[in-house]
């Protein structure tokens, strides 16, 4: 399953990505809303994990 993680906090993003990849999830990690919006135009994901307070474009 391919997931999109949108999180600007380095520590939290790394922890979530590491935890999910241990269960064989494929995790694309982006750190701002604009990058996520661009990725969603060209890629598909089964699940999105979204931080509500992001730089540039908030969740």
From TrEMBL:
<dbReference type="GO" id="GO:0000160">
    <property type="term" value="P:phosphorelay signal transduction system"/>
</dbReference>
<dbReference type="InterPro" id="IPR011006">
    <property type="entry name" value="CheY-like_superfamily"/>
</dbReference>
<keyword id="KW-0597">Phosphoprotein</keyword>
<dbReference type="InterPro" id="IPR001789">
    <property type="entry name" value="Sig_transdc_resp-reg_receiver"/>
</dbReference>
<feature type="modified residue" description="4-aspartylphosphate">
    <location>
        <position position="51"/>
    </location>
</feature>
<dbReference type="GO" id="GO:0003677">
    <property type="term" value="F:DNA binding"/>
</dbReference>
<protein>
    <submittedName>
        <fullName>DNA-binding response regulator</fullName>
    </submittedName>
</protein>
<keyword id="KW-0238">DNA-binding</keyword>
<feature type="domain" description="Response regulatory">
    <location>
        <begin position="2"/>
        <end position="59"/>
    </location>
</feature>
<keyword id="KW-0614">Plasmid</keyword>
<dbReference type="Pfam" id="PF00072">
    <property type="entry name" value="Response_reg"/>
</dbReference>
């Amino acid at each position: 399953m391919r997931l999109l993680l949108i999180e600007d906090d380095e520590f939290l993003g790394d922890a979530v990505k590491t935890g999910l990849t241990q269960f064989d999830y494929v995790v694309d990690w982006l750190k701002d809303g604009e990058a996520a919006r661009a990725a969603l135009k060209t890629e598909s994901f089964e699940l999105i994990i979204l931080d509500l307070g992001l730089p540039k474009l908030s969740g």
